[in-house]
Amino acid sequence: MDFQKFYFCKNKIQNLGFRRKIELNHSTKIRITHNNWYAELFSKTKRSIKRKREKKRENRSSAALSLQKQWALLNVTSVASSGSDDSNKNILFSDSALYSLYSPIYEVYAQLIEAKNVDENDSAENQTLTNNGCSNYINANLPENYIVLVSRGVCTFERKVQIAVANKALAVIIYNNDQNVITMFIKNTSIPSIMVSEYVGNLLKQLATHSTVFVSIKPGPVEFIQSGSLPSRSSVYFVAFAFLSVVLVTFVWLTVYYIQKFRYINTKKRLDEIFR
Description:
Layout (H helix, E strand, L loop, with lengths): L1 H65 L1 E12 L9 E11 L8 E7 L2 E2 L10 E2 L15 E6 L5 H10 L4 E5 L17 E4 L1 H13 L2 E12 L8 H42 L2
Parallel strand pairs: 3-6, 6-7, 7-8
Antiparallel strand pairs: 1-2, 1-9, 2-8, 3-9, 4-5
């Protein structure tokens, strides 16, 4: 009987030890899982901070790029049918243009072609011929090397450049709808893209329609915008703080004024009632 109790107690102790071992292993797994979770959270936070820093650095570089204007020199020439020697070139006119913000900057010389396309929203029965360059060109017999002329509007600048690249143009000239030129924001571009005024664009359009003209695009001077002309962050904060202070003081003064006025009116009424 004593031996039975002994073996019973021994088995019970062994079972308790085995269960305790299982519990310890389970808690260890939980602790390891928690440690892995904390490590993963830390790595995610670190990656997020790194991405934010890279985005901030990219925004700073974009802001630095926006502080300069890259001009282009535009030379329009006519070429005799005998060849393209310098002696046969007749310079028709020269003008300046403005590169887009992320445009590649290098010299390009090719024949000028006005884009001919139809709007994608037009029906098959009622198609309008235009030169906005927002859809695939339908020009007949496009040369191997050419610079395309498109008008501003209908779609984005980036869309116009993408269509030009798809049609194997060497460069894009976009003419504005007024006499000003702006720096176009075209981030994804592999060919030079420049903007000219409406007057120059219409002149190029007439020349390309009635004759064969060649265009040379060369990098011109860089115009830097003085960073001192832009307000600094501290000055903006100072002006905002001063404005809020003036508003607060005015509000307090008006509040005190109307309180005093209200008290004066009530006191006057009481005195009138007393001495009536």
